[in-house]
Amino acid sequence: MSDIEIARAARKLPIGEIGQRLGIEPADLSPYGHDKAKIGAAFLQSLTDLPDGKLILVTAINPTPAGEGKTTTTVGLVDGLNRIGAKAVVCVREPSLGPCFGVKGGAAGGGRAQVVPMEDINLHFTGDFHAITSAHNLLAAMIDNHIYWGNEQDLDLRRIAWRRVVDMNDRALRDMVGALGGVRNGFPRETGFDITVASEVMAILCLARDLADLEERLGQIVIGYRRDKTPVHARDIKAHQAMAVLLKEAIQPNLVQTLENNPAFVHGGPFANIAHGCNSVVATKAALKLADYVVTEAGFGADLGAEKFFDIKCRKAGLRPAAAVIVATVRALKMNGGVARAELGREDVAALVRGAVNLGRHVENVGSFGVPVIVAINHFLSDTDAEIAALKEYTSGLGVEAVLCRHWAEGGAGIEELAQKVKAMADSGKADFQPIYPDDMPLFAKIETVAKQIYRAGSVTADRAVLDQLAQFEAMGYGQLPVCIAKTQYSFSTDPTLLGAPEGHEVHVREVRLSAGAGFIVAITGDIMTMPGLPRKPAAETIRLDEQGFVEGLF
């Protein structure tokens, strides 16, 4: 059965029953049909004085076309924890329509380890992304309207920083000129679109503590600069309160369930290669009050997702992770070792060992944050006993354990061993979490720290304009912010073709952006785009409705 067939055959419980398992009464849920709901703000506020459970991060090696299965493992681990008697909740991000119709075709787990309703989650869900898109573009419209009616804030049209967004991969929108067509349409200027998951509004929603904090952060957005280079904020043109109105439901976490009827919070969705890659703080903190163990993921490989989870989300929200799981597959490691995709089904222990250096680098990096690590080997049918034994021997040499997991085929029953070991690790109290740089380090030094310690770069370069911009950010009072590096997900370097564990490469920062409301500085490197394009054969070509009206092609 395909992922979508498995999801469609799931025996889902009414969402009210899932809520009651966590102590959430029906009156505190706003249902969206029978199988999904939002959790009310008043209930969330009532949780403040409850003790926190333990937070477990699931991350992975760098993604390859061979597949890694990070979300599948995240969901499976929660099913496994509940099977062994632990009270566990999963917290993951909402999928973006861009990759769903582009490369991925869906992002709600897979096989017997999924969150459901899979079709709804992958498509419009509860409308959060639409609300974020609308709030972002409301601000864009108000900026141009402000300029049209006299430009009271004296915005310099050459220094407007706020672009528009749409939740779709559309390379044609990256750069353009707006307001063409004459006087009635405003003042022409260069602008462009980013994808919604790269929006600062998305980051703000995912880092805000509550609705009041959300509104305050929206007001802090820097939309551009005056001719004297002083910043203009969203609050200066009175846009932030209306933006908050559009987001008042979107900030409430979404409650759904796994295939095994365990609670799942699916909320927020910033990409990790161009944003901070974590689900919402509101959902994570609520889950920690409601469960003994909360399993969350961070996007792409640990060089992006885990680093940003630790250095941005945990730092900003005061979270202290108790354990981390790094997901790897034999197939993906062989690809890192030089095996072509068509040949991955053949046993090749030597290539596996060559490619395992990618896993080794991630193990070292995650451990450097003071968080104990275990490796999950996401099993594929083509894996051989010799390959699995070689991988376990390699990780043993690193001082960490690797556990074979069959959750894709068997659900929670196939990941019980990992669940037992992760629970023991989280309960051990061995975690001593620390970000890898202090708040008061200069901004460029923070970028260098991440590039050299996590990516193993030999040098970090930037044009004079970038260095001057960072200096200006510091002069404006933003030097204490963490950095969010936009980089290819496929390599430790900025070159997506350099697999394995490259060292000594150059990381060039070509642009920096201030996300004052979210509370970080974005450093854009290499050829990474904040508006992706569709691939030559997009998944959209095979997504359709069948004769019965069911969606086909999501996976």
From TrEMBL:
<keyword id="KW-0547">Nucleotide-binding</keyword>
<keyword id="KW-0436">Ligase</keyword>
<keyword id="KW-0554">One-carbon metabolism</keyword>
<dbReference type="GO" id="GO:0004329">
    <property type="term" value="F:formate-tetrahydrofolate ligase activity"/>
</dbReference>
<dbReference type="GO" id="GO:0035999">
    <property type="term" value="P:tetrahydrofolate interconversion"/>
</dbReference>
<keyword id="KW-0067">ATP-binding</keyword>
<dbReference type="InterPro" id="IPR027417">
    <property type="entry name" value="P-loop_NTPase"/>
</dbReference>
<protein>
    <recommendedName>
        <fullName>Formate--tetrahydrofolate ligase</fullName>
        <ecNumber>6.3.4.3</ecNumber>
    </recommendedName>
</protein>
<dbReference type="InterPro" id="IPR000559">
    <property type="entry name" value="Formate_THF_ligase"/>
</dbReference>
<dbReference type="InterPro" id="IPR020628">
    <property type="entry name" value="Formate_THF_ligase_CS"/>
</dbReference>
<comment type="pathway">
    <text>One-carbon metabolism; tetrahydrofolate interconversion.</text>
</comment>
<feature type="binding site">
    <location>
        <begin position="64"/>
        <end position="71"/>
    </location>
    <ligand>
        <name>ATP</name>
    </ligand>
</feature>
<dbReference type="GO" id="GO:0005524">
    <property type="term" value="F:ATP binding"/>
</dbReference>
<dbReference type="Pfam" id="PF01268">
    <property type="entry name" value="FTHFS"/>
</dbReference>
<comment type="similarity">
    <text>Belongs to the formate--tetrahydrofolate ligase family.</text>
</comment>
